[in-house]
Protein: Rod shape-determining protein MreD
Organism: Aquimarina celericrescens
Amino acid sequence: MNRDTLIHIGRFIILILVQVLVLNHINFLGDLNPYIYIIFILLAPININKSLFLLISFILGLIIDMFGDSGGVHAAACLIIAFFRPVALRTVFGLSYEFQTVKLSNIAFGEKLAYVTLMVLTHHIVLFSLEIFNFSHILLIAKKTLFSSLFTIVITTLVLILFRRSDS
């Protein structure tokens, strides 16, 4: 096992622990939580095996669901954003993604923010649509998506800035 693999395994475990032990209990303004565990999906290597990546993303969401007793909504949302990730990368980074030269530690803040925002919004729309699962509550879905997304984007961006690696 190489150093990068160990870093990704460590990131997987730490993000799950922080999410289930700390962040799931915040309930800011009643029911808003940051969902930073998706940083694992955001930072996965560009050239990772697609099937393995989808499986790991599903397992990540499933573990969050098991700790939160949330019936699979996190697993579904993680699977969707893992599947959507190449589209987001291509949209934000263009040719840099096509030639697999994107490294999140080396990109401009604006591009990093655009990528995080696109992924977080996608995750949260799926998550809250499945959690509420009632079209008559579309305003509640929109409100929870908007405010939780803002909270998650700010926290995720801070984490990415504070813990960025200089060599990756």
